[in-house]
Write a structure and sequence with these properties.
CATH architecture: 3-Layer(aba) Sandwich
Order of helices and strands: EEHEHH
Strand order of the largest sheet: 2-1-3
Strand content: 25-35%
Largest sheet: 3 strands, antiparallel
Number of domains: 1
Shape: globular
Structural class: alpha+beta
Length: 89
């Protein structure tokens, strides 16, 4: 069974959330239905980046990397920010 490390984005609050799971569709539905306490207040969410892994350990390690300074820099290069709607100042 594959595992995923993912990044979701809330356009309404301009926030990112990084996590891991076995089923991306089900996990996104959980975030958007309010089942996840840490993301409930920032709905709706959309997946903006993910990577697939063979083991849960690999996915967890990648999620931890995404949360580091180097990981945020990596994501900045790989997420298509042009597709995201940031408020105009």
């Amino acid at each position: 069974m594959p595992y995923y490390a993912y990044v979701i984005y809330s356009e309404s609050h301009q926030r990112f959330y990084k996590g891991h799971c076995e089923n991306l569709d089900r996990r996104l539905k959980e975030h958007n239905s309010g089942k996840t306490k840490s993301t409930k207040a920032f709905r709706p969410w959309k997946i903006v980046f993910f990577e697939k892994f063979e083991t849960r350990e690999e996915a967890v390690n990648r999620e931890k990397y995404f949360k580091t300074a180097a990981g945020r820099k990596y994501l900045k290069k790989h997420i298509l920010y042009n597709d995201l709607e940031f408020p105009k100042l």
